[in-house]
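Support reply, case 0932

Customer input (verbatim):
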Amino acid sequence: AIGLLLGKPYSGDNALGCAVTLILIFSPFAIFSVAFLLSVLSTFGILAVGLPICRYIDSRKLLKNKAVKYIAESGVICLSALLLTLPVTIYVFGYVSTVSVISNLLISYPVTLCLGLAMAGLLLNLVFTFPAEFLLFCTDKIVKYINLVINSLGGQPFSVVRLPEWCAFASVGLIITVFWILFACKKRIDMLKLKEMNEKIIKERGKLQKWQSFMRMR
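Our regenerated output:
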């Protein structure tokens, strides 16, 4: 966050690694905490899988419509977080959620808005009471909407699928496969960029040689 505020080069992977290292220095047994594992793995999934795919969608302009693009990229982010947490979720709880992607799409923006309004309301409450009360009133309504979505979807009989323990180990293979595909795609993209650079260099060199020959003739 400090790097972003100062406009310095920022690496999400390094920030996550630093946070994990600091937590484990002061609390080594956090590695056995399910909450810690899910938080780290979901964040790593977003950084290592979700964001590269979203950047590819943006760079190639695959989706023109902003609404469709938002839904697609939000879905990718949710799925990438779900993917990396699969082994822990299945091994510890014995089930996976079938509605997490839909629920995240419905509440991700309201949660962000809720946090912003709550912070603004708490700060304004120190000076102006009425605007602060209005903001906190709006926050309360948004929280009720979030709880409604979670309870409505989570209470359905199809909201979870129970899986045997061996599926946790199978999900590790799935994660390895996804990373292998991503690395293969990145290598292919890098090769195409290198080929394009080489062609440009050869073209520029040919122009330079023609110019030099023309100057010698003069």
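We compared this against your earlier run and they match. Two observations from our side: The CA atoms of residues 43 and 61 lie 25 Å apart. The beta strands are 95-97, 160-162. Please reopen the case if you see a mismatch on your end.
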